[in-house]
Amino acid sequence: MAINQKEFDAIIIGAGGAGLRAALQLAQSNYKVAVISKVYPTRSHTVSAQGGIAAALGNVVEDHWEWHMYDTVNGSDYLGDQDAIEYMCQNAPASVYELEHIGLPFSRLDNGKIYQRAFGGHTQNYGGEPTRRTCSAADRTGHAMVHTMFQKNLEAKTHFYSEWYAIDLVKTAEGGVAGVVAMCIETGELVFFKARATVLATGGAGRIYLTTSNAYINSGDGLGMILRAGFPLQDMEFWQFHPTGLAGVGCLISEGVRGEGGYLLNGKGERFMERYSPHLKDLDCRDVVSRSIIMELMAGNGAGPDKDYILLKLDHLGADLIHQRLPGIRDLSMSFLNIDPIKEPIPVLPTCHYMMGGIPTNLHAQVVTQDAAGQERVVPGLYAAGECACVSVHGANRLGTNSLLDLIVFGRAAGMHLQERLKSDLPAMAHDPADLERALARLARWENPANTEDPTAIRREMREVMQAQFGVFRDEKHMRPGLEKLQALNQRLQRAQLKDRSQIFNTTRIEMLELDNLMDVAVATAVCATQRQESRGAHSRYDYPHRDDQNWLKHSLYFLDGRLGFRPVNQTPKYVPPFRIKEREETYE
Amino acid sequence: MSKPSRNMTFSICRFDPDSGKPPQMQEFVLDVSKIKGAMLLNALEAIKESQDPTLKFRRSCGEGVCGSDGMNINGKNGLACITQLHQLPDRVVLQPLPGFPIICDLIVDMKPFFDQYEKVKPYLQNKNPPPPTERLQSPQDRAKLDGLYECILCACCTSSCPSYWWNPEQFLGPAALLNGYRFIADSRDTATAERVKRLEDRYSLMRCRTIMNCADVCPKGLNPSEAIAKIRREMLRESLD
C-alpha cells in the first residue's frame, strides 16, 4: 500500500517535558524538525507534575550535586546506573537555570532566588538530615514547565503535528530506524514521517493499572513501538506506587505536602511512619512509604468507616501556606472528595504513578539493544528520553522530583547529541518497505470484520489483573496465574473488535491502538516481575523479601518474542568514586 | 456500601461530517451510581464504553489540569473531568464549545484559539543576557503572576465571550489576552512597551466589553477580564510616558 511521505531531519514523538526540551534544543539549529503529538502539547501528562524539579542549587541550605547523586543511587536501591545518575545530578543546576531563563515562573525566596522545598529521600551530606533541593512553582511545576517550553517552541517556530498518532517505527534493512508511520486523528490520513533521526518521548504507561495517577493518554505508545520493532524494554518490573493518591480516585496529592510539613496518620491517629522509618519518617522514599501504608491497612489500622485508607494531615500548616504553596492539591481534594485540607486531613492510598523501566538508552539518549549473543549496540537513528526511556537514573525506585529533572536533562542531551550528529555523519537511511507494511498490518488487523472479542472488557480485565497481582506487594503464588491470565487476554486482543470504523476523529480506533501498547507493557511487566526473585526498590516480594545483590544486581531486558536478557549495572561514574552498595534503612517488624 | 441508583439523561450533540446531516441531539440514559468515578467525564466514558463507541470527545489528565475536555454543560462552559455529577440536575445537555468550528460531536477545531494565543507572543522576552545562575525576582513580583500563569488553555473563557463570537479573527479573546498580560506582569520581561503597542488597535483588545463571562466560567478560577483591565491601565501608563 502506498502512503504519503513527509521528510524531516529529525522527528520527535511526544510533546511533554522531554519532547519539548529536545525540540527546543533542535529549534536553535536550522534543521527541519517536527514534533508529533497525539494531543495538543499542553495536554501532555507532564502538566500533572506538582511538586517540583530537583537540583542542588543550595538556595536554602548547603547542597552539592554529589549529595544529590548519593541520594539518587541509594534511592534506586543500587539498580540505577551511576554514570547516568552522575550526569543527571551534575547537569541539574544548569538545566534548571535554563528553565528559569526561558521564563518558568518558579516560586521565590525572599532574596529573589528560586524557592526550594524538602522532598522524600533527598538528604544533606550523604544520608544526613532532609535537605531542600526541590525547585518549585507552587504545586504546579509540571504545568509551568510544559507551558514555558511550549511557548518558547512557538517562538522558535517548531513545527507541531498536534493530534497525530504514531503507530509504528519503520526500520531500515540494517536494523536502524528510518522514521514512523503516523495517523492524523482528525482526518484518518496516514503518513510515513521519514527522518534521519527519531526521538521517542512518549511518556509512561500507568494506565495498565486500575488505580493510577496517570492521564488517560499514558498508554506506553513508544514502548509498544519498540517491542514490535524487535528492540528490548528494560527493568519493566519496577513501577512506582505513589503513597498519596486521592483515596478512591487515584489522582496525585504531591509529596510536596509532606515536604512542607504535612504527615500521615493511621485510623488511631498515630504517626505510623515513625515506626517504619525512624530517621526520615514521612519523608522517606516512596517505595518505603507505600509499603508502610499497605502494612498499616493490613494490620487493621486504616482510617474511615471501612478502615480502608490513611489520612494525610496538613491543616496544621495554616491557610496561608496552603494557599501559597499547595493551592493545586487543595483544588483536587475539594473537587474530588469535597474535603478542604485547610480544615481536615485528606484520605489517601498508594496509586500507580511512575514507570522506572523503559527503553534502554545511553547517556546521549541513544536507544541501545542487545543481539542474541548478548552483544550490545546502539540503534542507528533512534533516541528515547523521559519516562519512556530507562537510562537508568531511577533504578528500582525513583526519588520525587527526579522525574522532571530526568525529562529536562535527557531531553536536552538527546537534542545536543542529535544537533552534532545532524551536522556530520548522520545519513538519511533507506527504509525497509516490508517494515512499513508491518505497521499497516496492525491497522488492518483492527479493521477485520470477523473479529468478535470485546476490547473494553479485555482492557478492564487487564487492569484488574495488574492491580491485584502486580501491585505494591507480590509473590509467585499470585503472579503466576496473573501472567497466565494476561497471556490469555493478549490472545483475545488479537481478535478484538473495532466498534467504530469512521474516519473523522475516531477516538475509539486510537484507544484500540493504545490498548495494543498497554497489553504489551502489562505482559512485559508480568514476565519481568515473575522472573526477578528478590525484593528491590518498588519490586517487593513476600516470597523473596530481601535484596539479592549476588544474583540480581542487574537490569533485565524483555523482547516481544519472549527472549530475556540482562545488562550489568554501571558502577563507574566519571568524576567521583563509585558509591558502594549498602542496605537501605527500612523496618517492617 | 452501594450508592442509591440515579438515572441521569445526557442529551449530547452528535455530528458526523461524513453523514451530510446537520448536528442533532441524542439522548443517553445512564445509572450513574453504577459507574466508576463521580465526574461528568466518568459518565461520558461509561456511555462510550457501554452504549455508543462512536461518541467522540477529548480527554487527557482527568483532573482539571490539561484543559482537553472543555464543553458546554447545560449552557455553561466547563471541564467535564472536574464537574461533579451530583451538582448537575438529572437532565444534562452537552454541546461542543460555542464559537469554534465543530469537527464532530463534542470536538471543536482548536486552531483558531491557538492562533490567537500565538499573536500575543506568549513567551518571555528579555534583551539582556542571562546571568550564570537564576534571574532574581522578589516574591512580591512573582506574586503578580498568580492568577495568570495557571491558565490551562481549555478555551472555556474565549468560547463563552460574545465579543469573540462577533470578531473571532480580530478580537484576541480572553485567554490570549490573559496570557499576554502574564508576560507584561513578569518583572523579567523587557518587551512591555511592544506588547502593549501591539494591542492598541480597535479590535485586538478593545472589543472586550467587560461582559465577564470569561471570569464566570474559568474552571481554574482566573479572571481574564481583570487582566484585560490591567493591560488597559498599562496602555494609559505607556501613553503618558
Give keywords.
heterodimer, A: 589 residues, alpha/beta, eight-stranded mixed sheet, B: 241 residues, alpha+beta, two-stranded antiparallel ribbon, 9 helices, elongated
Strand content of chain B: 5-15%
Distance between the termini of chain A: 63 Å
Give the helix tally of chain B: 9
The total of beta strands of chain A comes to: 22
What structural class is derived from the secondary structure elements of chain A?
alpha/beta
How far apart are the termini of chain B? 67 Å
Write down the overall geometry of chain A: globular
Give the structural class of chain B: alpha+beta
Short description:
The complex is a heterodimer of chains A (589) and B (241). Chain A is an alpha/beta fold and 589 residues long.
Task: Please give a structural write-up.
The complex is a heterodimer of chains A (589) and B (241). In chain A, strand 1, helix 1 and strand 2 (33-37) form a beta-alpha-beta unit. Chain A is globular and about 65 Å long. With 589 residues, chain A is an alpha/beta fold. In chain A, 34% of the residues lie in helices and 21% in strands. The mean pLDDT of chain A is 95. In chain A, helix 2 crosses helix 3 (82-101). Chain B has 9 helices and 7 strands. Chain B has helices at residues 40-50, 111-119, 139-143, 156-159, 162-166, 174-184, 192-197, 213-217, 224-240, and strands at 7-14, 24-31, 70-73, 76-79, 91-95, 102-104, 107-108. In chain B, a hairpin with a 2-residue loop joins strand 3 and strand 4 (76-79). The termini of chain B are far apart. Classes of the chains: A alpha/beta (589), B alpha+beta (241). Chains A and B meet through helix 3, helix 4 and helix 10 of A and helix 3 of B.
SSE inventory with pairings:
The complex is a heterodimer of chains A (589) and B (241).
Chain A: E1 4-13, H1 17-27, E2 33-37, E3 53-54, H2 65-75, H3 82-101, E4 116-123, E5 130-135, H4 141-155, E6 159-162, E7 164-171, E8 177-184, E9 190-200, H5 221-228, E10 233-234, E11 239-246, H6 256-259, E12 263-265, H7 273-276, H8 286-298, E13 310-313, H9 319-325, H10 327-337, E14 346-355, E15 359-360, E16 366-370, E17 376-384, E18 389-390, H11 402-423, H12 433-447, H13 455-469, E19 473-474, H14 476-493, H15 507-531, E20 540-541, H16 549-552, E21 554-558, E22 564-568
Parallel strand pairs in A: 1-2, 1-9, 2-6, 9-17, 15-18, 19-20
Antiparallel strand pairs in A: 3-5, 4-5, 7-8, 8-9, 10-21, 11-14, 12-13, 13-14, 16-17, 21-22
Helix pairs in contact in A: 1-4, 1-11, 2-3, 3-11, 5-15, 13-14, 13-15, 14-15
Chain B: E1 7-14, E2 24-31, H1 40-50, E3 70-73, E4 76-79, E5 91-95, E6 102-104, E7 107-108, H2 111-119, H3 139-143, H4 156-159, H5 162-166, H6 174-184, H7 192-197, H8 213-217, H9 224-240
Parallel strand pairs in B: 1-5
Antiparallel strand pairs in B: 1-2, 3-4, 3-5, 6-7
